[in-house]
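Whiteboard transcription, Tuesday session. T.W. wrote the structure tokens on the left side:
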């Protein structure tokens, strides 16, 4: 991925997601997800994470601009997240480079 800074400098940004992050992004491919719905779906894929672990990953993905908070979320204890265009691009790039079929 290429990023142009405010100064016009082109930087190559490394895709910093791992397999679990990719799974989380993939779950958001067509709708909003909460930490609880993500946990339930990951368990079906034999990935066992605590809610705290998932929230930590969601916060990192959010700070990296890969997911966004649903603007209709009122209860901050039950946040709903969706994938951004940048998240979709990085998720697609990860899937291709690791041979995942979408």
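and on the right, the sequence the group agreed on:
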């Amino acid at each position: 991925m290429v990023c142009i800074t405010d100064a016009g400098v082109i930087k190559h940004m490394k895709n910093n997601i791992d397999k679990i992050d990719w799974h989380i992004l993939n779950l958001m491919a067509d709708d909003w997800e909460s930490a609880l719905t993500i946990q339930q779906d990951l368990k079906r894929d034999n990935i066992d994470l605590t809610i705290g672990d998932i929230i930590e990953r969601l916060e990192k993905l959010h700070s990296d601009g890969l997911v966004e908070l649903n603007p209709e979320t009122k209860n901050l204890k039950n946040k709903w997240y969706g994938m951004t265009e940048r998240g979709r691009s990085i998720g697609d790039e990860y899937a291709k480079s690791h041979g995942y079929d979408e």
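Someone added at the bottom: The helical segments are 19-27, 35-44, 51-63, 85-97.
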